[in-house]
Amino acid sequence: MTINQKIENTFKELKKVVGWSVDKRVTLSLAGFYVTLGKEFDEGRFREIEGYIKKKAGIFSPLRSHLHPLFVATLDTSGLEPIQAVDILLEKVEALKKASFKVNSYTYLAALLMSNEKETWPNEMERARQLMADMKKHHRFLTSADDYPYAMFLGKLEGDTAVRAETMNRYYQDLKQHKFYVGNELQWMSQVLTYTNPNYEEDLVSRAVVIRDGLKSVKIKTSMPQYPMIGFMAVLKMNEDQLNAIVTTYESLANMKLFAWYKESALPIALGWEMRASKEAYATAAISMATSLEMLLQAQQAMMISTMAATSVAVSSNSN
């Protein structure tokens, strides 16, 4: 079965559950998320998670907000049993609340990035807090609660948080010089570029520029919501063949009737599909959640790094 057929079939199955009130771009993104992860959509399991969330979470909880289908999809693909997945997430949020994190959507997303071993939570939360503090030294007003998920994920990686924050700032300043627009999206992109190395790498900015300009040359949008995705393509050091394969898959998806008015949703799915066999499969699959709906950008970016965290754990386990 081709990716086009998989996307169409999964989209139809999802639509039965999420209904027509959910923006089509979100449903397309969710379909891409399942397909690129190689996960079969299970309506019964999805509904079980939905039902348990409604039972456990208050009516004003972010878990029951417009982000609801994104949370359900992430918990659904976590590998945990439905009830266990929801309970652990709620415990993590309580731990973050006690550690003085402001409680909002980003706190829940940061909780998704924490490990499931409770004894590691204090250190993970402290590292995230320290990275946030170090980031604020460079971007006092730009760094806020919407950076919680990235701080949680990157804080867990090896390396000095102060060095990582300084490197982020260098990337941010350099990217500005190459006509990347300033703002939250550029900050997230600069954070993404430290994923594999907390120290500054001279060639990463030029890689990002080449990727952006190359995509533009074949008329693929590279607006601000795509910045973190471009960052991942650069930091994973994708070669020309890989990038060309992504463009080919993008063009195939963009020609589908499903994507007639939402061609921007095809690129992250194409990226995840082409990287599905690599050790970064989860990371790139989650990028299919990254740009489908601009108003949910923060949440979808967090979904992306959430699955990156899962990949890191899997790779670490396999190497032991």
The domain tally reads 1
How many individual helices? 16
Topology as H/E string? Answer: HHHHHHHHHHHHHHHH
First-to-last CA distance:
35 Å
The Cα radius of gyration reads 19 Å
Mean of pLDDT = 85
Tell me the overall shape: globular
Q: Give the low-confidence spans.
A: 283-296
What does the largest sheet look like? Answer: none
Helix content: 55-70%
Total number of strands:
0
Strand content: under 5%
Structural class by sheet pairing and helices: mainly alpha
Detailed description of the structure:
Helix content is 64%, strand content 0%. It has 320 residues and is mainly alpha-helical. The chain has helices at 3-18, 24-37, 43-56, 68-76, 82-98, 105-113, 121-136, 148-155, 161-176, 184-192, 204-217, 227-235, 240-254, 266-274, 281-286, 297-319. The chain is built from 16 helices and no strands. The two termini are 35 Å apart. Helix 3 packs parallel to helix 5 (82-98), helix 6 (105-113) runs parallel beside helix 8 and helix 9 (161-176) crosses helix 10 (184-192). Residues 283-296 have low confidence and may be disordered. The protein has one domain (3-319).
Topology overview:
Layout: H1 3-18, H2 24-37, H3 43-56, H4 68-76, H5 82-98, H6 105-113, H7 121-136, H8 148-155, H9 161-176, H10 184-192, H11 204-217, H12 227-235, H13 240-254, H14 266-274, H15 281-286, H16 297-319
